[in-house]
Design goal:
Elements (H helix, E strand, L loop, with lengths): L2 E7 L2 H11 L4 E8 L9 E2 L5 H10 L4 E4 L2 H5 L2 H7 L4 E2 L3 H8 L1 H10 L7 E4 L2 H8 L6 E5 L8 E4 L2 H12 L11 E5 L4 E10 L3 E3 L4 E2 L2 E3 L3 E4 L4 E4 L6 H21 L5 E13 L2 E10 L6 H5 L7 H9 L14 E8 L11 E2 L1 E2 L7 E5 L2 E3 L5 E3 L3 E9 L2 H12 L2 E2 L11 H4 L2
Parallel strand pairs: 1-2, 1-4, 2-3, 4-5
Antiparallel strand pairs: 6-9, 7-8, 7-9, 10-11, 10-16, 12-15, 13-14, 15-18, 16-17, 18-24, 19-23, 20-25, 21-24, 22-23
Helix pairs in contact: 7-8
The chain binds adenosine monophosphate and glycine (GLY).
């Protein structure tokens, strides 16, 4: 069957999915809503945002499959809306998306399922939260309940700092309604992994683990961001550890979702903290997201040997275990180039210069970019683009990513120089 595919979203994640779908012979038309200044080159951008406008476009362009990239449209029930209108859609329901859109709900469910996670208290009452804060030893983690574009987590260095942030969140000043309920957590010390399960509501398959780099600056310094770079596969997650994550974290939550009547169909993203306990590595669940990670998607997509289209359609059709999901025996490293004032404020749009480079090194993924009428690509968002290096070894893949980056420049461009440092050293 020939497909006309619509990808919802405008980031690097959606560009990366588009890049692999474009090369699939079964894909006749590729559309993005709203897309970015780079996705123009892969397909057609549609300006629809409202559900009804998206549905209009689906009819107009005879779309056969919709893939929802980001969390926001999922938490607004776009998947349910499209299903009600008989559209084939990949992305969890509104009910299943609560795993990401409410940290308080997620923590309660995770505890019920017996999954290891940081000790916590969730409440909208400052007294209850303050009492719990004093039972913890700093640093203390303060989280807004709702979606805050990756900015709703604060690591407080003292009890009083934790209480100040809690009050600010609860007042609505810090994050509006998203902060009206707060989760306080004990701080877990370890290293982080991003794991991805593709679930059809009954069964699931796992993709290789990735490592993201959340902090803005090299050496894991500076504020948290949406992610400044990622790589996969990582030697920090061997078969044994991945199996443990699968058995102790992913399977129990998917079981729980099914039992409570909101089966999860889509990409389940586990943010894992690997801690050392009695000389053993023990994975703890930090958070669940209900979509691919960004920039993790940018390193997973080019390594898929089994086509993304097959993964998506097998999940939708409830037969994911009939698929043998194979990866290329390669490594991918993605380095994010961000704008001058990211993540604090937006920066004025500036032109991007890209000099020709050897395509064997890898490729560029466009994210926060727009296109002028004359066809020029401008850096207009926070995370502007990614250099994705591919190779037979992790160290060469990293060299390739930085080699590509040396061919790119724009005013105020910033990137970390140590992506994959936990696996390779600096
Ligand atoms: P989250 O959005 O919940 O994944 O949190 C964002 C980032 O904050 C994570 O990727 C971690 O780097 C950090 N973080 C969140 N919760 C904890 C915790 N309990 N202990 C240590 N770091 C945490
Ligand atoms: N890279 C982390 C995220 O997508 O939330």
């Amino acid at each position: 069957m020939q497909e006309n595919i619509l990808i919802i979203g405008n980031g690097g994640r959606e560009y990366a999915m588009g890049l692999v779908l474009k090369d699939d012979k079964r894909v006749e038309g590729l559309y993005f809503a709203p897309g970015n200044g780079g996705t123009h080159a892969l397909g057609t951008n549609i300006s629809a945002i409202k559900h009804t406008d998206i549905l209009e476009s689906i009819k107009k362009y005879a779309i056969t499959l919709v893939i929802i990239g980001p969390e926001a449209p999922l938490s607004e029930g776009l998947s349910d809306f499209l299903k009600e209108h008989n559209v084939r859609v990949f992305g969890p329901s509104l009910a299943a998306s609560r795993l990401e859109s409410s940290k308080a709900y997620m923590k309660d469910l995770v505890s019920q399922a017996g999954i290891k996670t940081a000790r916590y208290m969730q409440s909208s009452d400052v007294k209850t939260l303050s009492e719990f804060i004093y039972t913890l030893t700093p640093p203390i983690v303060v989280k807004a309940d709702g979606l805050c574009a990756g900015k709703g987590v604060i690591i407080a260095q003292s009890h009083s700092e934790a209480i100040t942030h809690t009050k600010e969140m609860l007042s609505g000043k810090a994050f509006g309604n998203a902060g009206m309920r707060v989760v306080i957590e004990e701080f877990l010390d370890g290293y982080e992994l991003s794991v991805f399960a593709i679930s059809d509501g009954k069964d699931f398959i796992m993709l290789p683990a990735c490592q993201d780099h959340k902090r803005l600056l090299s050496g894991d310094n500076g504020p948290n961001t949406g992610g400044m770079g990622a790589y996969t596969p990582t030697p920090l997650c061997d078969e044994t550890l991945l199996e443990k994550i699968k058995k102790d974290i992913i399977a129990p939550i998917l079981d729980m979702m099914r039992k409570q009547g909101s089966p999860f169909v889509g990409v389940l993203f586990g943010g894992i903290m690997v801690c050392e306990r009695d000389n053993e590595l023990e994975p703890y669940l930090l958070e669940f997201n209900v979509r691919f990670g960004d920039p993790e998607c940018e390193v997973l997509m080019p390594l898929l040997q089994t086509p993304l289209l097959d993964i998506v359609t097998h999940a939708i059709d409830g037969k994911i275990t009939q698929l043998e999901c194979k990866m290329k025996q390669k490594y991918a490293v993605a380095v994010v180039a961000s704008s001058k004032d990211y993540p604090y404020k937006s920066s004025p749009a500036v032109p991007i210069s890209v000099k020709e480079f050897d395509m064997n090194l890898g490729h560029i993924v466009y994210a926060g970019v727009s296109k002028t009428e004359s066809g020029e690509i401008l850096a207009s968002g926070g995370r502007v683009l990614l250099a994705v290096g591919l190779a037979d070894s992790l160290s060469l893949a990293r060299d390739n990513a930085y080699e590509i980056m040396r061919h790119i420049s724009f005013d105020g461009m910033h990137y970390r120089d140590d992506i994959a440092f936990r696996a390779l050293g600096k």
